[in-house]
Amino acid sequence: MTHTLDEGSSTPLYAQLRELLKSQIEDGSFAPGERIPSEDKLNGLYGVSRITIRRALQELADDGYLVKCPGKGTYVGERIPSMRRPTKIRAKFTQNNDVQSFTEACASNSQSAGAHLVSLEEVEGLEEERDFFGFGSEGRLLRLVRIRTADRTPIMIEENYFPVGTYGFLLDADYEDTSLYDIIVSNGHGEPTLNEPCDLDLEKAPADMAPYLDVPAGEPLFCLAGRYFDTDGSPMYLGKQHIVGTRYTFRI
């Protein structure tokens, strides 16, 4: 039975295709050892790009549902996960309350950090941002939004604001599975520092954010907001982390 993908959904097409194929594997529509349709066939069935198809297949392979055989095709694994993984407590680790990058936090817990770009756009600075960065009404900001994962489990959405004039190099950076701190340092800046406490609040996952975190809309999230500085004391960025509380532990 052919299903359609919803291009208007807030859930990315690759994630929709991944979940659809996963459900077909789990319900026996594709048996262990069976070859799944080719990329051309999947393109004809669902009308999505090869990039979308390849990402969905790669994530299923990484999770043990598929096995890729070069020159032969992609097959259902002989020993697939018997049940869908639970949506809660899939990854839980601690992070000290100093400025430790997410990549470092994952490494200290023997987990692999991942990153996927959601959006990068130039926006107008509001009063709070203008006050922090010290510019007038002409000041513009780069709004950088990424999903951060640990062992492929979504942990948080990062929402960071940088002044365009100083951090314009971020427009050309590669954010896929990359440490933002590494990008900043490689462009001549120091590692971000905190000169004041962060604010930690609770919020509910909005409908447009929840699919990226693989949680239902309204799921409780931590919101950690901080003002970060360069090593010379100059303002670097304003950051917000929208964190799935059941997958993250703060050590304070």
TrEMBL record:
Residues covered by the HTH gntR-type domain: 11-79
Entry keyword set: DNA-binding, Transcription, Transcription regulation
SUPFAM superfamilies for the chain: Chorismate lyase-like, Winged helix' DNA-binding domain
Membrane is among the record's keywords: no
GO biological process, one term: negative regulation of DNA-templated transcription
UniProt keyword Transcription present: yes
GO molecular function, one term: DNA binding
Pfam family, one: UTRA
PANTHER family associated with the record: MANNOSYL-D-GLYCERATE TRANSPORT/METABOLISM SYSTEM REPRESSOR MNGR-RELATED, MANNOSYL-D-GLYCERATE TRANSPORT_METABOLISM SYSTEM REPRESSOR MNGR-RELATED
Protein name: Putative HTH-type transcriptional regulator YurK
Organism field: Collinsella intestinalis
Phylogenetic lineage: Bacteria, Bacillati, Actinomycetota, Coriobacteriia, Coriobacteriales
Protein's gene: yurK_1
